Amino acid sequence: MKRNDWIRKSHLFRTDEYVCPQCGAAYEKPYQVCPNCRSQMGKSRYDSSWVDKAESLSAMMDDDW
Ligand SMILES: [Zn+2]
What we know:
The chain is α+β, with helices and mostly antiparallel strands and 65 residues long. The chain has one helix spanning 48-62; strands at 7-9, 17-19, 26-27, 45-46. It has one domain (4-60).
């Protein structure tokens, strides 16, 4: 059975989203089964391509200069 992993999107000013890789639906928490397309889900996966921007931005703001 094919397993899917939530794609976690980090946002600076609101809660993280978990996006279903099958149907693209986004939720505020990782369900075990996607409520939209009923795909069985594994654990969430960190999508670094989405996080990079937010993390570098917060890193800049945390910097002392
Ligand atoms: Zn889905």
